[in-house]
């Protein structure tokens, strides 16, 4: 009874929250519908994966985390393309515009990595620069265990690596409470409150307008919560150990990190990360930002990436 009352109270509180108010769009801003219209489809063995594939030249993969999608990189894609690169930005299964099939282990780190490799094989891409953020780091470590030779440059953006510094905003045990939370996110009951809290904590100043938020909100209201359920009930409670594998990596790597991130703190893991990946001090870039640095510092990130891979 007590758990029920808590849940009802939370739902009432979240229902009372005001939605994002409309703000004038930036000149370079696109709508989420336009972004989706630019995506292509790949029928993986587990479901359809949507992805952006733009430009020509050396390939750069932009990998999101939880609970985001390729939309997170929308301000970076065209500048990278204009600089002579082919950009691949997938919505991983269960996120964004991709399918969200029933299942649990289907959203494991290993399965995400295998599907990403399937996509790259489908596109006949043999090597690429790999940019990762948040839980995209876990999917990347699994990918590198399979095919380390395919990634020629590694760009680490506020990424999950070690237990040190990892402080997720939510942790659930599998079961009723977690399922109820996901139900609230996809039924519009707690969607606004969750996103407002996420961006309040994840941005130095939340200047996202209604058009920005649409790309994060709509997938949730379309039911894209199964992959989130796995992450918050499994990964957050039992973070995989990748350090022995990371120490074997030999490709050039750089760190680009929002120094005020409260979800993923660099200070407690920077020394280990630089040592394990052989990253020199000049390849560590600390930005005045928080967790979602692609929203706060997209131009700076693009310039650092271009300088690094050139």
Written overview of the protein:
With 310 residues, this protein is α/β, with parallel strands linked by helices. Helices cover 41% and strands 15% of the residues. It has an 8-stranded mixed β-sheet with strand order 1-2-4-3-5-6-7-8, with helices on both faces. It is globular and about 45 Å long. Mean pLDDT is 91; it is low at 1-27.
How would you briefly describe this protein structure?
By secondary structure, the protein is of the alpha/beta class. β7, α11 and β8 form a beta-alpha-beta unit.
Distance between the termini: 61 Å
* SSE topology string: HHEEEHEHEHEHHHHHEHEHH
Radius of gyration: 19 Å
How many discrete domains?
Answer: 1
Q: Which strand-content bin applies to the residues? A: 15-25%
What's the story with the biggest beta sheet? 8 strands, mixed
Which runs of at least 5 residues are low in confidence (pLDDT < 50)?
1-27
Q: The CATH topology is what?
A: Rossmann fold
Number of β-strand runs: 8
Class per helix and strand makeup: alpha/beta
Number of discrete helical segments: 13
Q: What is the overall pLDDT average?
A: 91
User: Can you tell me the CATH class?
Assistant: Alpha Beta
Helix content: 40-55%
Strand order in the largest sheet: 1-2-4-3-5-6-7-8
- Give the CA-based shape: globular
């Amino acid at each position: 009874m007590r758990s029920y009352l808590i849940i009802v109270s939370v739902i009432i509180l979240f229902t009372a929250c005001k939605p994002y108010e409309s703000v004038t769009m930036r000149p370079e801003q696109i709508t989420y519908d336009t972004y989706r219209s630019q995506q292509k489809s790949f029928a993986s063995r587990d479901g359809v994966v949507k992805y952006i594939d733009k430009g020509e030249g050396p390939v750069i993969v932009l990998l999101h985390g939880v609970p985001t999608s390729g939309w997170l990189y929308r301000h970076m894609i065209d500048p990278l393309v204009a600089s002579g690169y082919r950009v691949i930005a997938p919505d991983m299964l269960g996120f964004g515009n991709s399918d969200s099939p029933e299942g649990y282990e289907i959203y494991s780190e290993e399965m995400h990595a295998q599907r990403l490799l399937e996509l790259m094989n489908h596109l006949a891409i043999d090597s690429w620069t790999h940019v990762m953020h948040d839980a995209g780091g876990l999917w990347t470590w699994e990918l590198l265990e399979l095919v380390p030779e395919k990634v020629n440059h590694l760009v680490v953006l506020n990424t999950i690596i070690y237990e040190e510094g990892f402080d997720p905003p939510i942790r659930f045990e599998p079961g009723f409470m977690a399922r109820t939370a996901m139900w609230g996110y996809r039924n519009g009951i707690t969607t606004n409150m969750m996103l407002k809290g996420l961006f309040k904590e994840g941005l130095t100043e939340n200047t996202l307008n209604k058009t920005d938020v649409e790309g994060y909100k709509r997938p949730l209201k379309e039911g894209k919560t199964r992959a989130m359920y796995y992450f918050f009930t499994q990964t957050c409670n039992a973070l995989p150990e990748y350090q022995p594998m990371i120490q074997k990596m030999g490709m050039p790597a750089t760190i680009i990190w929002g120094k005020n991130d409260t979800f993923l703190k660099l200070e407690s893991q920077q020394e280990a990360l630089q040592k394990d990946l052989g990253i020199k001090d000049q390849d560590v870039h600390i930005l005045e930002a928080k967790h979602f640095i692609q929203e706060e510092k997209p131009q700076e990130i693009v310039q650092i990436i271009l300088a690094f891979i050139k």
